UniProtKB/TrEMBL annotation:
NCBIfam families documented for this protein: PRK11118.1 (NF008333)
Pfam families in UniProt: ydhR
Gene3D superfamilies named among the record's database cross-references: 3.30.70.100
Keywords in alphabetical order: Monooxygenase, Oxidoreductase
Keyword Transcription regulation included in the entry's annotation: no
Molecular function GO terms recorded: monooxygenase activity
Name used for this protein in its record: Monooxygenase
InterPro entries for this protein: Dimeric_a/b-barrel, YdhR
Length: 103
């Protein structure tokens, strides 16, 4: 069963196009993570938070990514990581045209 992983954390910036420019290499490396289907990058400048919504093929892939990503964020001094796992209800998501297909 596909697993959705939601992550956000305190982030001081950069934002918008500057964030896009600064995070190109990281985005490329994330696309190679085992079990990742897709990621949506999120940012909220007003609340100084960033993160993402990820779809993984299974919970074990999502958990392995979160473990690695949390260590990476902690190495940058980022704490207060909010992470949540959700099982995907495929039949209902199909009705609403949810983009669950693999790359």
């Amino acid at each position: 069963m596909s697993t959705l992983l939601y992550v956000d954390f305190p982030y001081p910036g950069p934002w918008g196009s500057e964030m896009s420019d600064a995070m190109q290499e990281l985005a490329q490396s994330i696309s190679l993570e085992p079990g990742l289907i897709w990621k949506i990058w999120t940012e909220n400048k007003e609340q100084s938070k960033a993160g993402g919504v990820y779809l993984f093929k299974d919970k074990s892939s999502a958990q392995a990514y979160l473990d690695m990503h949390s260590k990476r964020l902690n190495s940058f001094g980022i704490t207060g990581i909010d992470a949540r796992f959700f099982d995907v209800n495929q039949p209902l998501t199909d009705i609403n045209s949810g983009p669950l297909s693999a790359k």
